[in-house]
């Protein structure tokens, strides 16, 4: 077997999109070195190809940067979750701000003024998709290791809400006896106002004993509901329901389906809602209407309905059913519409019936909807909530070409110590008043 290459010394020039330190290799190509920071001199060993460049592993820190911080989590370096804990918060926040500015600059907005990011505190994440494995009969529960399918067994987690962390050990104990958990699965935990909501994706079908075990677990640990689904299946079954599930969104109580999308933290949700509301046209008439595209459970629709009537478009049947049921009990200002915005995007004429359009698309962005938004003539504001700067940049380029100006850009850091970046970007028509 060939020996691994000897480590080489590198000067780190910048951070890449995934948060790796990037240096220039001897052949001029970039070398991506996880856990290295700009300004540092490091030794690293090349491990393979990565895109146009090479991946390497850090072997020694020769000259640390002043931006370096002591990672607080005992799993740092093994767990693939919070890979940026080695960077102090102020430069980390500035990195996120600069990434949004860069994406908007590439879209044709080089002078965009980007606000300071709202960085959410530790112990506030209310949604976790935990991987499950059975190793020699013993359940392993945690997040994937960086760049691998292996699962790092966790006893704690610094970003998750303590109410979810408190379930790690009891879950592992219960899973030992669950026949429907054979080799692999996942546990999606959503912390609702009614308590933790659990969706187990399993590689077996729960039998009678499993159902009794799950019902006992739900009662013992204050979970109103436990649902099970096959590993890759879309349909879940409520295996234990010992109470009602609910979460308040904009003051309206919604009953989400198991595993439903929630903004990752209450603080992140509040920052997004505040930036969206601040981006609305200053004067909305009594007849004004707002469209909320990719509305999910109505996280934005209900707060928006305090300012105007809202039509909320959403493609997932479960989400739109929950949104519709909640809307019917909330004063009639929100109308829920099930629509697949990839197959059937809103046409410019439909969009022009609104004073403002809010869109919060999935990671891939809104490639099918965006050209039609750019072609509107009456719409006053487009408020884009993004979880992917690359897709945002691509979509914003169309608005720039159509003459939309950028009114504000607010980064929101909901995934503390990660390379993920969310943002609310407001586009307005014409020149600034
Ligand atoms: C990032 S989530 C945002 C949800 C909501 N705005 C919130 O803040 O909680 C994106 C939403 O887009 C929905 N979605 C994804 N693809 C869609 C499509 N083609 N048409 C309509 N909705 C879609 C998903 O079901 C999900 O609810």
From TrEMBL:
Gene3D superfamilies: 2.40.50.1070, Nucleic acid-binding proteins (2.40.50.140), Vaccinia Virus protein VP39 (3.40.50.150). PROSITE patterns: SAM_MT_RNA_M5U (PS51687), TRAM (PS50926). InterPro entries: NA-bd_OB-fold (IPR012340), SAM-dependent_MTases_sf (IPR029063), TRAM_dom (IPR002792), U5_MeTrfase_fam (IPR010280). Residues 1-60 form the TRAM domain. One of its GO terms (biological process) is rRNA base methylation. Keywords: Iron, Iron-sulfur, Metal-binding, Methyltransferase, S-adenosyl-L-methionine, Transferase. GO terms for molecular function: iron-sulfur cluster binding; rRNA (uridine-C5-)-methyltransferase activity. S-adenosyl-L-methionine binds at residues 263, 294, 314, 360. The active site is at 387 (nucleophile). It holds the Pfam family tRNA_U5-meth_tr. Belongs to the class I-like SAM-binding methyltransferase superfamily. RNA M5U methyltransferase family. This is Class I SAM-dependent RNA methyltransferase. It comes from Teichococcus wenyumeiae.
């Amino acid at each position: 077997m060939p020996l691994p290459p000897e480590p080489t010394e590198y000067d780190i020039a910048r951070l890449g999109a995934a948060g790796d330190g990037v240096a220039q290799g001897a052949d001029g190509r970039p070398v991506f070195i996880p856990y290295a920071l700009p300004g540092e001199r490091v030794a690293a060993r090349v491990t393979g190809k990565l895109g146009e460049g090479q991946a390497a592993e850090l072997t020694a820190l020769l000259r640390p940067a002043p931006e370096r911080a002591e990672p607080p989590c005992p799993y740092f370096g093994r767990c693939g979750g919070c890979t940026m804990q080695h960077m102090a918060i102020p430069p980390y926040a500035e990195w996120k701000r600069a990434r949004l500015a860069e994406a908007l600059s590439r879209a044709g907005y080089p002078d965009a003024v980007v606000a300071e990011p709202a960085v959410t505190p530790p112990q506030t994440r209310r949604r976790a998709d935990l991987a499950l494995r059975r190793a020699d009969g013993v359940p392993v529960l945690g997040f994937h290791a960086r760049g691998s399918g292996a699962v790092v067994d966790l006893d704690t987690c610094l970003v998750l809400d303590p109410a979810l962390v408190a379930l790690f050990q009891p879950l592992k104990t219960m899973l030992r006896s669950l026949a429907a958990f054979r080799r692999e699965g996942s546990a999606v935990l959503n912390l609702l106002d009614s308590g933790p909501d659990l969706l187990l994706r399993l590689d077996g079908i729960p039998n009678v004993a499993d159902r009794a075990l799950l019902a006992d677990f739900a009662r013992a640990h204050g979970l109103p509901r436990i649902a099970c689904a096959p590993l890759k299946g879309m349909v879940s079954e409520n295996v234990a329901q010992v109470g009602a599930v609910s979460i308040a969104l904009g003051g309206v109580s919604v009953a989400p389906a198991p595993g439903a999308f929630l903004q990752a933290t209450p603080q992140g949700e509040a920052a997004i809602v505040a930036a969206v509301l601040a981006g609305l046209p200053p004067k909305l008439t009594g007849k004004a209407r707002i469209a909320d595209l990719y509305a999910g459970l109505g996280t934005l629709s209900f707060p928006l309905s305090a300012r105007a009537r809202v039509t909320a478009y959403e493609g997932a049947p479960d989400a739109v059913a929950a949104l519709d049921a909640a809307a019917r009990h909330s004063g009639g200002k929100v109308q829920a519409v099930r629509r697949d915005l990839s197959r059937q995007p809103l046409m410019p004429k439909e969009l022009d019936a609104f004073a403002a359009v809010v869109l919060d698309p999935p990671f891939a962005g809104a490639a099918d909807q965006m050209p039609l938004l750019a072609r509107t003539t009456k719409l006053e504001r487009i408020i884009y909530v993004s979880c992917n700067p690359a897709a945002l940049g691509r979509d914003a380029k169309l608005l720039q070409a159509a003459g939309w100006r950028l009114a504000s850009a607010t980064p929101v850091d909901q995934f503390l110590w990660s390379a993920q970046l969310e943002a609310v970007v407001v586009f307005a028509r014409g020149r600034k008043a």
